[in-house]
Amino acid sequence: MILAIETSCDECSAAVVAPSQDLTNSVDVFSNIIFSQIELHKPFGGVVPEVASRNHLEMVNLVVEEALQKAGITFKDLTAIAVTNRPGLIGALLVGVSAAKTLAYSLKIPLIAVNHLHGHLLSPFISKQKNSPAITKANLPMLICLVSGGHTCLYLLNSLPSEKIDLQCLAKSRDDAAGEAFDKSAKLMGLPYPGGRHIDENAQKGNPKAFTFPRPLQNELDFSFSGLKTAVSNKLTQLGFKPHIFGDQNFEELPSGKTLHDLCASVQVAIVDSLMNRIHKVIESHNPKSVAIVGGVSANSLFRSRLQSEIKLPVLIPDLQYCTDNAAMIGAAATFQMQRNEILSDNELLTLNAFSTSEISK
Ligand code: KG4
Ligand code: ZN
């Protein structure tokens, strides 16, 4: 059993996982405890790194205890500790890394350092998910669309993760990430942080054709989302509203009702169109055998339904609890690293560091 800890941003999470008994390349989750700091950061309209680190310090022992309790085990049953050490907010990462080092050293068990992005990418390999059936060699190469608050990338996964990680990056965002585009557009409309979920909810009642927002670089594989916030801001002004900026709380100047619903639906379809356009292109050009979406934006209901209706290949969509940040996906990536013998040596155990940025291949 592996205890995994995730503190890279504003979710403090601990999970207990183990290789699946019945299937190779599949991981069973026994507990996945997530304490979200969203309420703490809401008044500031975004994550405040120092507030995040301090709260991780208060919560990390509690989420670890709860994860063990829910899994019905004690520290003695653990065979390894896994922790996200890159990329993320440096102070936030350090809290998880320090807690993990302490546990591994005192329990005399291996420590596994996990790249947060590998966690997202391998989340479809968690067992018993509604829209992620067992994955075999027949599903390779797999096109994985990683869409979160900090990343928008298309990868081809050419190997099963218990053997090696063979990832080819095909495209990425040249500026803002898709999640950032959701959050910044939502903020301009006066919706709470993080705005992706609020745009999704309001869009359900809106007309996606009411307004036209840009879908840049249509003839390329790379993405660009930074122009969307200017387009949203201009549209709000044109409609007689005052784009919401931090501290400006005059709600009478912000859109509501049908206009808000239409704006949300139109922004959402612009982002999802950009994502689907690239997915269709890569299916044509690279002939993948399956398609997965991972990361916080894969929780978006329009993106999930369009993937299922438009793609004729097997599609893998993680359960909602595995889309946004969680320790179970870190445990899954660590399980495969352990199977590949990628654990830290005794020396590295105490010198392991945290890094704010990282190459996906490392
Ligand atoms: O993967 P994640 O939890 O954290 C990062 O590693 O960045 O992703 C967070 C992002 C935020 O931008 C959030 O607004 C977005 O995922 N998100 C959504 C939805 N739920 C979360 N975006 C669109 N629709 C959603 N339902
Ligand atoms: Zn993430």
Task: Produce a short descriptive summary.
The chain has helices at residues 38-41, 49-71, 90-107, 116-121, 178-188, 196-203, 226-238, 257-286, 301-310, 327-339, 346-351, and strands at 2-6, 11-19, 27-36, 80-86, 111-115, 142-147, 152-157, 167-172, 290-294, 315-316.
Describe the structure.
By secondary structure, this protein is α/β, with parallel strands linked by helices. The chain has 2 domains: 2-132 and 321-351, ATPase, nucleotide binding domain (Nucleotidyltransferase, domain 5, 2-Layer Sandwich); 178-316, 2-Layer Sandwich (Nucleotidyltransferase, domain 5). 39% of the residues lie in helices and 17% in strands. The chain contains 11 helices and 10 strands. The chain has a 5-stranded mixed β-sheet, sandwiched between helices. Strand 9 (290-294), helix 9 (301-310) and strand 10 form a beta-alpha-beta unit. Helix 5 runs antiparallel to helix 8 (257-286) and helix 6 (196-203) packs across helix 8 (257-286). It is globular and about 65 Å long. The two termini are 24 Å apart. The mean pLDDT is 95. Bound molecules: 5'-O-[(R)-(carboxyoxy)(hydroxy)phosphoryl]adenosine and zinc ion. Zinc ion binds next to helix 4. The site of zinc ion has 5 residues, from helix 4.
- Mind describing the biggest β-sheet? 5 strands, mixed
Order of helices and strands: EEEHHEHEHEEEHHHHEHEHH
CATH topology of the largest domain: Nucleotidyltransferase, domain 5
Average pLDDT across residues? 95
Q: What is the oligomer described by this structure?
A: single chain
Secondary structure class reads alpha/beta
Head-to-tail CA distance between termini: 24 Å
- State which percent range the strand residues make up: 15-25%
Number of helices: 11
Low-confidence stretches: none
Strand order of the largest sheet: 3-2-1-4-5
CATH class assignment of the largest domain: Alpha Beta
- The total of beta strands comes to 10
* Count of domains: 2
CATH architecture of the largest domain: 2-Layer Sandwich
Rg computed from alpha carbons, rounded to a whole number of angstroms: 21 Å
**Portion of residues in helices?**
25-40%
Look at the structure and name the CATH superfamily of the largest domain: ATPase, nucleotide binding domain
Bound molecules: 5'-O-[(R)-(carboxyoxy)(hydroxy)phosphoryl]adenosine, zinc ion
Shape field = globular
